[in-house]
Design goal:
By secondary structure, this protein is an alpha+beta fold. It is about 35% helix and about 20% strand. The chain has ten helices and 19 strands. The strands form four sheets. Strands 2-1-10-5-6 form a five-stranded mixed β-sheet. Helix 1 (about 5-30) crosses helix 4. The N and C termini lie far apart (about 75 Å). Bound molecules: ligand MTE and molybdenum atom. The site of molybdenum atom (MO) has 7 residues, from loops.
Length: about 550
Amino acid sequence: MRKPSVASGALVGLLLTVPLIAVLYLANRLAGLAFPPFDAFDWLRDKVPGGILNTGIEGLARTLTALGLSLRSASKPAEIIMVLGMFLAMGVIVGAFLFAILRHARESWKMWAGLILGAAVGFPLTAITLTLHRASGIHSLDNPLWTLAIFLIWGYAFVWAYNTLAGKLHGHEIAHGERMTVEKIGRRKFLISLGAASAAISVVGAGLGSVLGTRIREGKKVPLSASAAPTKSGLATGESVQAGGLFAPAPGTRPEYTPLEDHYRIDINLTPPVIDAQTWSLPIAGLVRNPVRLSLSDLMTKYESMDQLITLSCISNTIGGDLISTTRWTGVRVQKILDEAGVKDEARLLSLESADGFYESVPLNLIRQDERIMFAYAWDGKPLEAKHGFPLRIYIPDRYGMKQPKWITKAELVADSRPGYWVERGWDREAHARATSVIDTVAVKDVVTAENGDRLVPIGGIAWAGARGVSEVELKVDDGEWIKAGLRKPLSGLTWVIWRYDWPFRAGSHTFYVRCREADGAPQIETPSGAFPSGATGLHHVKKKL
Ligand SMILES: Nc1nc2c(c(=O)[nH]1)N[C@H]1C(S)=C(S)[C@@H](COP(=O)(O)O)O[C@H]1N2
Ligand SMILES: [Mo]
């Protein structure tokens, strides 16, 4: 009798693990149960030394850039594909390994071998889901029971597949010479049926899961204060650059106000934590005279709301990169809330914890000095989307995103605190936003004719210097002089500014460079450096053949 091979074990591993992923995903979407592949990744990520994590992230970013993909849209999917790929590889290895054992195992032991291997994978994953979900306040036993059960079933399914395959080898009463071919056909048929069942379960699970997933929380309008008039530049096109800062951006310049669906997103988790607005509340704890707990409706109704147009950038943004966006944030002044809680004298920091295990702290001195620091519950006039931090995130002007937690679950006043999540992993303590300027477009197809008959190519883009403001943008073509560009009035003191320069057309290949100055005249740093650890520096340039 020929026993099923180790290779067929690997194949069965694949065929059993794909539907396992689909079923786990469906349960995650339907019942909010843990999705262990992601949990394992999230858990591991926090255990891995910062250097390795940074190298991994950088490697991924480089690969995507080399493939010509945008980091904004491709990095999360790429991470997810990588993690699922690793999980599948685990399934394939388990299958091969288990079949190798089963080939030598006694009949009565086979079932146990499958269950033990299922448990060997399921137990650690169960433990991980337990620790992770306890952190975000879910105390039920559903997750561990579900995780363990599904992995035991998965482990047992290998044994069933093995036995069925083995059965196909000797179950037929056929003439001796034909046996092998019939066996092969039988095995192939079984594997094809298993593949079909696997595909069917996977498609149904993934399809249903994603359909149900989109039903989550459609944006309801948030009442906004009167100052929150809709943001529109309201500028007529065709106005000239000289018109006192009110000119049309060069065609091809990014939108001044980022459509919400295009806002970049960066977070440590593969999928955003899902927080129930009904049960969520924010404790203001620690060194306060009146500890309070604020519900989302407390935050939205008991305090005066404020709106700010804000450009947010990730410290990982490369020169000219797309991890920078602008939208309108609505929330409440953090200082107001702290006043009410009555901060004790010994307190120095506001320490924040997030549902995804992220943490940071903000010096109280900074909060006292800066009225713009806010707890934000809405973006673009709608409650924060899950991926952008629902229900609450903080805004701190002039810092990169890594200092500004989303999904805040706890605010505690403390005398001292560990450094923030990314600071602990080697990134800049303060993470002050660095001045940056970008060429979005050299609009060769939109040449304008000047009064003197010159043909001018509109060139434009953005410049941003955190909350410090941009006073000047200059453009250089090849090794010519630096020339001043026109600046639009920014949407607010916290947003990027759109610049434009209409350049007299010259045929040939050219390199265009841009640089800016902050409001106080300080120049943008021209020396190139990568994003780690303090944010990228250097000049953006674009080569163009005209
Ligand atoms: N809880 C939590 N907050 C977080 C992060 C995170 O991973 N978890 N990422 C930070 C980083 S690095 C950035 S750049 C911004 C991005 O915010 P956005 O994804 O809403 O654009 O969120 C910050 N706040
Ligand atoms: Mo970031």
